[in-house]
């Protein structure tokens, strides 16, 4: 959308067959004209944890700003925006068990201060006359109008909840499930796991022979297993792997190994239906 | 065993495995493209109509889930030899059935009644109806790709 508005050119960092960013290719793409590098921390479609610290370091050595999409990482990977030194970091509340319609955009103060507001409304004005309007300082400058108060309180509670358990502890638990699940699913010969990065969060994206993921989703659902099926709003990734869609099992802090056993049985049942 | 046989009936599974009237139709005089952006299902429908509005032949090609493929396949079988007016009539009946607008599937849908179970799966209604919407567009020779997108966008 920014490209349409500003006439900017979008370049895409390619990935290998495991779903990992090709860092050498990435470095070649950065030129003196590069304005912003936007990269997802964790791929929603593949589970890859991208080496964002390296990316940020390289980008900054070339004077380029970095925006990290942390929607998939925030409840699963410990994030310290200052240590990472990223310029912007965004995440949605509902991915960290908060209500929908609330999220966070972190930005370095000097950058936010230099940016114009994107909409007008209450509480974003410092002073106003007919001649001149002075905007409030960030973050108020970007929070025009009546805020989503209930959502903010819900997000705060969710962040407190996750912090009390500890993201490290959650990550370790989910990694255990990932290892167990990957082994269990690999034993089913029709299963092809899409996304086999060394650094991976707790999701297993897979295909099952010729069975369409939406059929897998419906049949698993009937057996009490909720997965995501589809292109995950990542059609270019699907094209990269030459598939229309995947089925994806995602693990959270509340999942247990026994549920993976149920998943395996449900997958076998699915294979029987289409046998 | 959990019951999903209401949706994945043998007849549906058979048609998805070996779809009938599959592939291009060289001498088609009507065709239309259908697309379901939510699933990525794609379908092209070919019709050969004669002067009095009888469907002489009907073919489809495309890719999609079992429900969409079986629905397209069974539709072609049901419509071959029918008048376009009958096709329109069946289209409306089929649509009302999968949308759950009628309590009991109309008898004249014949074998197509196996899709009645779809009404219990709101997420799958579009899979079953894509072929029919595309057929309707082909009858009217609509140029635009038929989309099942209702403007609600795709989930992320």
Question: What would your notes on this structure say?
Answer:
The complex is a heterodimer of chains A (275) and B (156). Chain A is built from ten helices and ten strands. Chain A is α+β, with helices and mostly antiparallel strands and 275 residues long. In chain A, the strands form three sheets. Chain A has a four-stranded mixed β-sheet with strand order 1-2-3-4. In chain A, a hairpin with an 8-residue loop joins strand 7 (191-194) and strand 8 (203-208). In chain A, helix 7 (167-186) packs parallel to helix 10. The termini of chain A are far apart. Chain B has one domain (10-142): Sufe protein. Chain: A, CATH 3.90.1010. Helix content of chain B is 33%, strand content 17%. Chain B has a four-stranded mixed β-sheet with strand order 3-2-1-4, with helices on one face. In chain B, helix 1 (10-17) packs across helix 2 (66-79) and helix 2 packs parallel to helix 4 (125-139). The longest helix of chain B is centred in the middle third of the chain and has 15 residues, at 84-98. Chain B is globular. Chain B starts with 9 loop residues before the first helix and ends in a 9-residue tail after the last strand. The A-B interface holds A 44, 211-215, 218-219, 222-224, 230-233, 235, 238, 244-245, 269, 273-274 and B 1-4, 7-8, 13, 17, 38-40, 63-67, 121, 123-124, 127, 154-156.
